[in-house]
What does this fold into?
Amino acid sequence: MPDSLFGCRPFIVVKEVVRLEDYVIVTNNPLVEEREGKTHTVELYDVGIEEILRLIRDRVHSGQRLLTHPLSGSVKPGETPYKSVLMTRGKEPFDLMSVELIQSAIEACGKFSFKRDEYDERAMRDFRIIDWTLIKSALESADSF
It folds into this structure.
């Protein structure tokens, strides 16, 4: 499958149906927890962008699989402090694609430095909304099955 704009697929192709009880949203975005926490399983962590990616990587190494691309959207990891990713909930067979995607995302993040103090609260709110909008789109696709 060819990559889309910006060189990455926004969503990972899932070969089987994914049900609500099969996935979890891993995020550092409190807006995602606020908006989706009543209807979806959301695990919110109070960490920065690179740390949330590392946490996701550790979960991939322990057997979970990515269901959304960790760099979905056109926002570079150094431009936003928030990231939400849809992952399988349980342990699965080793998934090389998930390992490669999350490692690439961490490496891309390392190329940028996010300077939180350069942004006011309005900009931070905008970053939260952008991230929530991206994961909301993925949820709508997953929940339509």
Confidence is low (pLDDT under 50) at residues 1-15. The chain has four helices and three strands.
